[in-house]
Amino acid sequence: MITADETGENLERRGLVQVYTGTGKGKTTAALGLGLRAAGHGWKVCMIQFMKGKINYGELEGVERVEGMTIEQFGRPDFVDKENPAQVDIDWARKGFERAREIMASGECDMIILDEINVAVDFNLLKEEEVLEMIRNRPAHLEAILTGRYASPGIINIADLVSVVSEVKHPYMENIPAREGIDF
Q: Strands 111-115 and 45-50, how do they pair?
């Protein structure tokens, strides 16, 4: 059933803002699941990964097999120092942000996943107000997914859906190292 709001807009194609945040594992995985579901319905899905680069994450290989879904990385394989981020990390985040704005302006995607953008804001690699403005000004049909720990109050406030993933128990606590195919 197709429903419309008071302006007559088709609500099935109105893009919403979803945020996946919290200390638990699974935020990127949830966003990838949404992307896979959307691609299965013929949507074009673009994922921008902030603060990730040159690591052979399994999703990079997997997405190559999914028609209509792409991932672009903007970061180094190293951890970013929150207290003193290197200029190269700020520059990578800025490039990712500009690429996200370009994608939004072009209308080339039906869904954009901004993976780890919450962390990029928290680490002061990006300004919160710029991210909020970009989200507010996106095309009406564009579904926007924002992931990462530390979602700011402004990002939470602008969202239509917020899921907080909590860590209750994690294999790392038992000295089980990250596993290929599961953790990366």
A: parallel
